[in-house]
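Please check this chain.
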Amino acid sequence: MEKNKTAPATIDAYIAACPTGVRSMLQTLRETIHAAAPQAVEKISYQMPTFHQEGNLVHFALHKNHIGFYPAPSGIEAFQADLARYAASKGAVRFPFDEPLPLALVTRIVQYRLAENLAKAAGKRAKKRA
């Protein structure tokens, strides 16, 4: 994304500020995440597109040579074998521009993170009632 003095306020604005050649990839990633977690709220957090439901689910961001996908460390650990072909760190995966996005894998990771967040929220509610 081009460096602006102010961060975009919406995911639409974030994608619109990106170079034309990668906008469709970002929009496809956004749609895939939304389909996997249809009730998640879109927002900008840490200056990145973020999906939130009972906590942050995933973030993504445009970088010079890749799209960063941030499903939290638990999302990386749970799908470590599937993500082995991508450069990854504790909480991030790099999807290179010259390869198709692994949309089925993204869907599974988002669904995993959603189940994780829902279970955590249910546990917190149960504690409050006890």
Summary: The CA atoms of residues 82 and 97 lie 18 Å apart. The helical segments are 11-16, 20-36, 72-78, 103-129. Residues 103-129 form the longest helix (27 residues).
